[in-house]
């Protein structure tokens, strides 16, 4: 029986996500500064993971791109670079898991 609210039974209508995972960020990093660091690669948006208890950055983030070429160029160009005095690691992010929708 097909159920449109269950992702495994419903065709995924969104295209692939081109996201880079960025680690070893300074704790002072926010979404704006992360997007600015990747500005030469035309990022769509940037997200930083925050600790819910302290409100401080966890030192990791994600940068989303419009296409695979931009993402690959950003990974090659930014991996091992200094951001805020720290050497960051950049890699391709895993796809988000499909979730049940009510």
Question: How would you describe this protein?
Answer:
Strands 2-3-1-6 form a four-stranded antiparallel β-sheet, with helices on one face. Residues 1-5 have low confidence and may be disordered. By secondary structure, it is of the alpha+beta class. The longest helix has 11 residues, at 68-78. It contains two helices and six strands, in the order E-H-E-E-H-E-E-E. The protein has a domain at 19-85: RRM (RNA recognition motif) domain (Alpha-Beta Plaits, 2-Layer Sandwich). The chain is globular and about 35 Å long.
Jot down its keywords:
Nucleotide-bd_a/b_plait_sf, 18% helix, two-stranded antiparallel ribbon, alpha+beta, 102 residues, RNA binding, RNA-binding, Alpha-Beta Plaits, RRM domain-containing protein, disordered N terminus, four-stranded antiparallel beta sheet
């Amino acid at each position: 029986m097909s159920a449109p609210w269950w992702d495994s039974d419903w065709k995924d209508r969104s295209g692939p996500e081109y996201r880079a995972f960025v680690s070893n960020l300074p704790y002072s990093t926010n979404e704006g500064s992360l997007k600015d660091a990747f500005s030469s690669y035309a990022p769509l948006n940037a997200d930083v993971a925050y600790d819910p208890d302290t409100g401080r950055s966890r030192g990791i983030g994600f940068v989303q791109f419009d296409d695979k070429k931009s993402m690959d160029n950003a990974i090659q160009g930014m991996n091992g670079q200094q951001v805020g005095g720290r050497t960051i690691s950049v890699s391709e992010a895993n796809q988000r898991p499909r979730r049940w929708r009510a």
